[in-house]
Amino acid sequence: MTVYFIGAGPGAADLITVRGARTLASCGVCLYAGSLVPAELLADCPPDARLVDTANLDLDAITAEFVRAHQEGHDVARLHSGDPSVFSAVAEQMRRLDAAGIPYEVVPGVPAFAAAAAALKRELTVPTVGQTVVLTRVAQQATPMPEGEDLATLGRSGALLVLHLAARYVDRVVAELLPHYGPDCPAAVVAMASRPDELILRGTLEEIAGLTKEAGVTKTAVILVGRTLAASQFRDSHLYDPARARHVC
Q1: Alpha carbon distances (Å) from 107 to 20, 96, 140
Q2: What metabolic or biological pathway is this protein involved in (predicted)?
C-alpha cells in the first residue's frame, strides 16, 4: 500500500488537480481535515472507502490510521488543504512513515497564495518592479520563527511578502513592515480564496489592519504586501518583446 499526500487546493472543490482526483478515487482509505477540505471532494472516494476526519486527531492517532491501513493493504489518500509543500504539517507525518517503513508519495495542489493572486487578478512578479516572492508567517507562542526569518529581517528585501496564518496578528505585521515598505505600499488580504464566501480586502499597508479587523477576518486568509500588487508602469517582459530574436526551425 501507499500513502498519498494530496493537495486538495485552496477551497473550491474543482481546484484539485486531475491527478489528485484520480488518486483519491482509487484509495480505500481517506484521511482528511474536515475543517479545511471541502466535503464535496469526498464524493470522489470509492463508495466503500473508510473516511477519517482528522480535525480532532493528534499525530499519534493519525499515524495509527496509516499503520492500520498498511496492515490491511489499503492505499491511503491523505487530503491536505492547499499544497503539501508549505505550512501543511506533512513533514512530521512523513517522518513517522519513514520510521514505520510505509511508502508514500506526494501529489501537489493549488496553494493558497496562488488562489489569492488569482482572486486579486495580479501577477506577483512584475518586470523591473519585483521578481521575488517570500512565503512566510509570523512567530507564535506555540511555533517560533527560526533566527533571521522575522518580518523585520525579511522586510529589508522589499520583496512581495505573502503571510499565511497571520490574519489575527495583522497589527504586528503592519508595525514590523512599515519601516521597510512605507505606509503607502499596496497590501491586500484574501480570505477563503476560491470559495463562495471569498473576501478580498485591498488598501495600503497603513490601512490594511483596520480593514481586516473591520471585516472580522482572523483565519483562513493570506496577507500580501508589496509594490507588484498595484504596479501599472513597468517594462514589458523580454519573453514577448517584438525585438527578441526568434528562430524558425
Answers
A1: 6, 18, 29
A2: Cofactor biosynthesis; adenosylcobalamin biosynthesis
Whether residue 39 contacts residue 12, with contact meaning beta carbons closer than 8 Å, is answered with no
Q: 107 has which bridge partners?
A: 6
Three-state SS sequence of the chain: CCEEEEECECCCHHHCCHHHHHHHCCCCEEEECCCCCCHHHHHHCCCCCEEEECCCCCHHHHHHHHHHHHHHCCCEEEEECECCCCCCCHHHHHHHHHHHCCCEEEECCCCHHHHHHHHHCCCCCECCCECCEEEECCCCCCCCCCCCCCHHHHHCCCCEEEEECCHHHHHHHHHHHHHHHCCCCEEEEEECCCCCCCEEEEEEHHHHHHHHHHHCCCCCEEEEECHHHCCCCCCCCHHHCCCCCCCCC
* pLDDT tens for each residue of 45-93: 999 999 999 999 999 999 999 999 999 999 999 999 999 999 999 999 9
Q: Per the structure block, which three cell numbers stand in for 16? A: 484539485
* Rounded CA separation 125/113 (Å): 13
Average pLDDT, rounded, for the chain: 93
- For residue 206, the enclosing domain spans 112-230
Quick check: 209 and 174 in contact, CB under 8 A?
Answer: yes
Residue 236 lies in a domain: no
**Does residue 107 register a pLDDT over 80?**
yes
220: which 3 cell numbers?
483562513
Domain limit, last residue, from 76, 107, 138:
107
- Asked whether residue 43 falls in the same domain as residue 92, the answer is yes
> pLDDT tens digits for 210-243?
999 999 999 999 999 999 999 887 777 777 677 6
